[in-house]
Design a protein that fits this description.
Elements: E1 2-5, H1 10-23, E2 26-29, E3 47-50, H2 58-66, E4 71-74, H3 84-89, E5 93-95, H4 102-118, H5 120-128, E6 147-150, H6 154-165, E7 170-173, H7 179-183, E8 187-188, H8 191-197, E9 200-203, H9 217-222, E10 227-231, H10 240-249, E11 252-257, H11 279-284, E12 290-292, H12 301-321, E13 327-328
Parallel strand pairs: 1-2, 1-3, 3-4, 4-5, 6-7, 6-9, 7-8, 9-10, 10-11, 11-12
Antiparallel strand pairs: 5-13
Helix pairs in contact: 1-12, 4-6
């Protein structure tokens, strides 16, 4: 098939081209994001291959349909950026990569916990400046702390396994409880119990209308004072303004983010020579107990290989059968 690949960074191209040696699709790479302003670039193609911050609302999908696009191939598991009903109405199949490397995201999640606790980011800067003082770097034992895991799917269960290895009691919330999680001792409770009992809360659920701003003023009010909050899932699970208030009051003692609800204009780009225009994000950067990474939790060699192979296999399956085992319906 003739495919327009959007949001294609050099590393994307490297892994996709390697995987395409088996599939032999005709690929054209665009570093720009797919949006209403760039959708014309899809003219003349049969499919578009997109990532987490590409914008596929009803207007963009209508334009894609008019351009002859018959498939949207996502290089990710989440699909909150796609209007599935519009795609279905226009006869465009949408497929995703349901699992690539849950270990990558789970390990990054725990890396954020450890960095925040032992203040590795601050300690590294001090040592580089010749400052070996320990004042202000005091951490705590994670062993024995209660960890609340919201979302116990493929990633959440791997986080549970790691934290079980740390010797942490585990609480979980999921609309579909995971037997494997229960077997390692995780106890399923209501969200309110996670908020009130967990020392560390980590988010691993999809972004849906029901989970939008799951962490809000009321949730934060219920949390233990000084709780650690980690989000490596989707940015809009957190009401950022409410979290800033929680940081200022001390209710949230530590915040680790790999995602941000307005990340589309920031992440995956080099803005080091520019003044940030997002005042909310800039405010987050002023807190010493906040660590933010730019949506890199997935970013391992293993994950990129799996994403590329699965994405192209989805396209090949659709080309041959008109269907795809990883397709998503509204």
């Amino acid at each position: 098939m003739k495919i327009a690949v959007f949001s294609a960074k050099p590393y994307d191209r490297q892994f996709i081209e390697k995987a395409n040696e088996e599939h032999q699709h005709e690929l054209t790479f665009f570093e720009t994001r797919l949006s209403a302003a760039t959708v014309a670039l899809a003219d003349g193609f049969q499919a578009v291959c997109v990532f987490v911050n590409d914008q596929l609302d009803s207007a963009v999908i209508k334009s894609l349909s008019e351009s002859g696009i018959t498939m949207i191939a996502l290089r990710c598991a989440g699909y909150n950026n796609v209007d599935l009903k519009a795609a279905q109405a226009h006869g465009i199949l949408v497929a995703r990569v349901p699992a690539y490397s849950p270990y990558a995201v789970a390990e990054h999640t725990v890396a954020l916990m450890l960095t925040l606790n032992r203040q590795i980011h601050r300690a590294n800067n001090r040592v580089r400046e010749g400052n070996f003082a320990l004042d202000g770097l005091l951490g705590f034992d994670i062993h024995g702390l209660t960890v609340g895991i919201i979302g116990t799917g493929k990633i959440g269960i791997e986080v549970a396994k790691i934290m079980h290895g740390f010797g942490c009691p585990l609480l979980g919330f999921d609309v579909s409880p995971n037997v494997e999680a229960e077997e390692i001792g995780l106890k399923y409770v209501k969200l309110e119990e996670i908020y009130s009992q967990a020392d560390i809360i980590t988010l691993h659920c999809p972004l849906t209308p029901q989970t939008h701003h799951l962490i809000n003023l009321q949730a934060i009010k219920t949390m233990k004072t000084g709780a650690m909050l980690i989000n490596t899932s989707r940015g809009a699970l957190i009401d950022t303004t409410a979290v800033i208030d929680g940081l200022k009051s001390g209710k949230i003692g530590y915040l680790g983010l790999d995602v941000y609800e307005e990340e589309g204009d920031l992440f995956f780009e080099d803005l080091s020579n520019l003044v940030l225009q997002d005042d909310v994000f800039a405010r987050l950067l002023t807190f010493p107990n906040v660590v933010i990474t730019g949506h890199q939790a997935f970013f391992t060699r293993n994950a990129l290989e799996k994403i590329a192979h699965t994405t192209l296999a989805n396209i090949t399956e659709f080309e041959k059968s008109g269907k795809c085992s990883n397709q998503i319906t509204a």
